[in-house]
Design a protein that fits this description.
By secondary structure, the chain is of the alpha/beta class. The protein has one domain: Rossmann fold. 35% of the residues lie in helices and 22% in strands. The strands form two sheets. Strands 1, 2, 5, 6, 7, 8, 9, 10 and 11 form a nine-stranded mixed β-sheet that branches. It has a two-stranded antiparallel ribbon with strand order 3-4. Helix 1 crosses helix 9 and helix 3 packs parallel to helix 4. Bound molecules: adenosine-5'-triphosphate (ATP), magnesium ion (MG) and zinc ion.
């Protein structure tokens, strides 16, 4: 018997953005979620692809409960949140979130390609991809198999971080993926008691990095108790800090891709 022909991929995605760093723990997943949410709030159709297969954290950040994957014809349906964000993560496909994904490079790369080709994203204005840390097989697969419009690079204002981020920005350039700009996370700290701003790193590392690559600083996000509690308590959409951060991210992203 002939296998039925797989239908053409019906996804129409206007802008495909990767959130990258090279460095671990600087806030890629947080920035991915905040950027997607910011764009959604502006009325765009938005999806999040969690490409961090071995360190998937988007479902936790977004408080998505264990999800029974649904099949739509020849495709897998992404999870759709109440606010209408479409999300796909390896966590949805394993029984237990804490179970490690122990796969070798080729399998990781295959999973990533399936997230692109076998998921029914439908029509989206933006698909935001949470990249794994480092410059692994998975990162390279994303760069090679997805028609990325560019990367947002997340950094923190520390010289040790900038060096690693610079390396990964060079890799993006070599792979011909444009650098859209930098988001500086943990830029400063706002005292929860008196509201004073402290720049504990105090240097202009991110400005220097932006100049070195001829790109710009898109947004600055403070270290805050509010954002630190995102995975446990969720986001307070009413707070001044949240509104300012979402506004910066939406405006910069829309403008860069216009
Ligand atoms: N601006 C911030 N203020 C306070 N805490 C933050 C902020 N940004 C991120 N965090 C916290 O720092 C930790 C790392 O953030 P996140 O998981 O987004 O980083 P990541 O770069 O995706 O990490 P990984 O490399 O492991 O994927 C998380 O616990 C997160 O809640
Ligand atoms: Mg992450
Ligand atoms: Zn204080």
């Amino acid at each position: 018997m002939n296998q039925p022909e797989k239908k053409d991929n019906p996804n129409k995605i206007r802008h495909l953005i990767g959130v990258m760093s090279g460095k671990g723990g600087v806030g890629k997943s947080t920035v991915t979620y905040l950027t997607a949410l910011a764009l959604k709030q502006k009325g765009y159709r938005v999806g999040i692809l969690d490409a961090d297969i071995t360190g998937a954290s988007i479902p936790r950040i977004m408080h998505l409960p264990k999800y029974e994957m649904k099949v739509c014809g020849d495709f897998i349906c992404p999870v759709e949140t109440e606010s209408g964000l479409k999300v796909m993560s390896i966590s949805f496909l394993v029984d237990n979130e804490e179970q490690p994904v122990i796969w070798l490079g080729p399998l990781l790369s295959k999973a990533i390609r399936q997230f692109w080709g076998d998921v029914l994203w439908g029509e989206l204005d933006y698909l935001v991809i949470d990249m794994p840390p480092g410059t692994s097989d998975v990162a390279i697969t994303v760069m090679q198999s997805f028609p990325l419009h560019g990367f947002i690079f997340v950094t923190t204002p520390q010289d040790l971080v900038s060096v690693v981020v610079a390396r990964s920005m060079q890799m993006a350039e070599r792979m011909k993926v444009p650098v859209l700009g930098l988001v500086e996370n943990m830029s400063y700290f706002i005292c929860p008691h008196c509201g004073e701003k402290t720049k504990f790193f105090g240097q202009d590392e991110t400005e220097k990095l932006a100049r070195q690559f001829g790109t710009e600083l898109l947004a600055q996000i403070p270290t805050s108790v509010e954002l630190a509690r995102l995975p446990s308590q969720g986001l307070n959409l009413e707070s001044k800090l949240t509104r300012e951060v979402l506004d910066q991210l939406a405006r910069a992203t829309v403008q860069k891709l216009a």
